[in-house]
Structures are given as structure tokens and as C-alpha cells.
Amino acid sequence: MTGSKDDREFELTVNGKRLTVSGAPVGASLLSVLRDNLGLTGTKGACEEGECGSCSVMLDGNLVCACLVMASTVTEASIATIEGLAPSGTLSRVQEAFVDHGAVQCGFCTPGLIMAVSDLIDRQPNADRETIREELAGNLCRCTGYGRIIAAVESLLNEGDL
Amino acid sequence: MPVFHPIDVDEAVELLARRGPRRILAGGTDEMVRINHGAAVGEGEEIVCLNNITELRSWAFESDRGVLVIGAAVPWTELASGAIATLCPSLAEAARTVGSPQIRNAGTLGGNVATASPAGDGLCAAVALDAVAVIRSAAGSRRVPVAELVTGPKQTGLGPEELITSFEIPLTEGYQGYAKVGVRNAMVISIAGACLVVDEQHGISRLALGSVGPTILRCPEAEPLITDVILNRSGNTARLDEIVDSVRSAARPIDDHRATADYRRHAVGVLARRLVTRAISAREENNT
Hints:
The structure holds two protein chains of two kinds.
Chain A: E1 10-14, E2 17-21, H1 30-37, E3 56-59, E4 62-65, E5 78-80, H2 93-100, H3 110-123, H4 129-135, H5 147-157
Parallel strand pairs in A: 1-5
Antiparallel strand pairs in A: 1-2, 3-4, 3-5
Chain B: E1 3-4, H1 9-17, E2 22-25, H2 31-36, E3 46-49, E4 59-62, E5 67-71, H3 76-80, H4 82-87, H5 89-96, H6 101-106, H7 109-115, H8 121-128, E6 132-137, E7 140-145, H9 146-149, E8 150-152, E9 155-156, E10 163-170, E11 176-181, E12 192-199, E13 204-210, E14 217-218, H10 222-231, H11 237-250, H12 261-287
Parallel strand pairs in B: 1-3, 2-3
Antiparallel strand pairs in B: 4-5, 5-10, 6-7, 6-10, 8-9, 11-12, 12-13, 13-14
């Protein structure tokens, strides 16, 4: 985006840490601040208009597109990104399920999908296939055709039945 | 481009009363798209962000007036389920068709109305529900029916110093539903939309059409026919055909990159038939 530099600093709480943002363009999205100012490049940017879901993060417990959040407006919020899902070098159970089911091809949509699926299994532990498809409608994947992604999600939801 | 974060409506309307270009930021699902693409970053432009105003994010059912009061910044997710969905099913159905979970967690009814897209799902429901917008400015407040507030594509009667703070929706007994057509089952802007609200107590129906005109259209000729078919059980195929024809005559669609006018006119008739049929079935179920 264009726009004048704002000298004003602000702070964000990301993955439980209070971080200082300085030098971000005024009006910058949370997506661009995460990536360009805080170096958290796990969150991906593509459409920057809320269509693709590759920048999905949790904001105060709600799944949102980071590109549609103005960073300077969420200084009091708790932000969770893909980097905070599991300790470095380990995988969350959603990430493990994606690996186990080969639910990744180019990988660009994967962080956003992992965030959306993590949110989905928390909110709807009994989701059926139709619900899963509907809940993931905001995350586009151009490689997999979604079959293996759905299989990975179903494996997580069925764990309780085993 | 300074960004302001008022903590209450008084402070927000004081900011809006100042001179100079300014824009309101709430859910961000439209406004941030503009900002990301550089469109809204004018010299000296001020942004008034509504995130921190809790009163805009709350809702209440005022049983003495029979009115549901919904804060302008209540997100779609909250409208789509729970108590609001029970009180106002057509708004909930419209909310469920908006975008994706990510968009529904951010976008708001106030933004949908103020943006005034003819395809606005919440806007279509608000018109069918006879919703009234409560508008504040530093000078005072006024109440305007949503159907009058929105005057054309992306055009409203809102002044630059004004802020929609809530919507008052009179609750009715009877069937309500929203239906739309798009290129996918989810995450889609409507090519045609329709919302039907039957008010059994007053013996009237309101049918609002989206994406088939410069703004949301009502169907004054079809509505009495719809009421008759639903409430007097005078339903038969010929009557339904008459309703569909009337709805298609009320539509004023255009050709654009999403669909042709002919397709839209056809689709909105299909949606009207679907909603009326659902209303008849719902009533029969309730009476058995």
C-alpha cells in the first residue's frame, strides 16, 4: 500500500508476547505488520481482500483475515498466528494430521488452513463433511482439490470415537 | 492519515463533526480492501475506528416495544446463531450466507447497510424486516427506515458527520426466510437475493429483492398475493405463477460481469417461489 510513514509506535500482543511495531505505514494491515515489521512470515498474503484465507489468524479467539484488520486498531487484542500453534520444532495435532494425510502440496494456503481447521475443531468437534466444507469455504487451495485436507480434518474429529 | 480510536459514540461523533475528509472503519471487510489497494489513503484523511466502542457491539430485545435492537457493529457470526437467530430467522439466514467464517467474524450489519451495495445480504433482510436505522451525530439523533436511508448503489442519506449506531427491528410472528443465488455455495456475492417476512398479526407480507436493481426493491404488487396464498391457504400452481410473474416485473436488473439481466430476473422469480413455498410448508407444519 501507499501512504505516509507514521512515526508513532504501537504494541501488539502476538502469541502471548508484547511486541513493539515501529515504522509501519499508517493504516497498514495486520498481515503486512506481522510479515514486514515483526518478521512473522508464517502468515501468508495473497489476495489482500479477504477472499483467499491464506492470512487467517486468531484475533481474541475469532478467526479473521489479517489483511482486513488494521494493525493499529488491535493493540489491546490477543493475536495468535501459525508460529504460536506449537513450540518450535514440534507440530500441533492439526499440523501432524496434515502431514499424515498428505494435505499439503505447494503449501502456500497451509498456514491459513491450519489456523482455520484448529478453530473449526475447537468450535465444532462433531462437524460432518458438509459442515467441514462450509467452514473451510474461506480458505482457497489451488493444488489439492481439498480431498486430503478434508480427510485430515475428519481424522481429527473422529479421534474421540476411537 | 491519522487513525482515531474513540471509546464511545459521543467521542466518535465529535470526531466525525470535525472538518476534513474522514472515513469510518468497523469490520474492515470492505474498507480495508480499499486501504490495502491504496484507494483510501488520501492526504489529511482521518480514519475513525469503531473497534473499541462496546455499545455498538451489543444487542437487546425490548419486549415492551416488541423490538430487537442490534448494535451496528455486531458481527455476522453473532447474528447467524443463538438468540438473535431465534428472534429474527431471516436476518440469521442472510448472515449465514455472507462470506466465510473469517468474514462473518469481522463484518457488520452497520457496514453492510452503510456500504449500500444492491447485493448486500443483510441490507436485503433489513428492508424486508422494516428495520429502522438509529443514526447519531454531534448535533443529535434521528431514526430512518433502512429502505429510505439507502437511495442507490453505494448511496445513502447518511451525512459525513453521521454514524449508524443500531437497528431497530420490529419482531413479527410468521415465516421469515432469505435465499440467494451465486456462483458457489459459499463465499459468494449474490447474483440475485430475496427475503420474505410474513407478519401474521397484521396480515401482511414483505418481499425484498437484492441484486436486481440499483438498490433493494420491494414487491408491492406481489406482496398481497403472497399474503393471500400463505395465510388463506389459497395456494395452487397458478397463484404461485402469478406471484413469480409479479416479482419478475418488479425486478429492474442490469447486465454486468456477474450475470445477465435476464438471468437475474429469472433467478429472483425462482427465489420468490422457493420462499413462498417454504412459508406455506412452515405454516402447515405449525398447524398440524
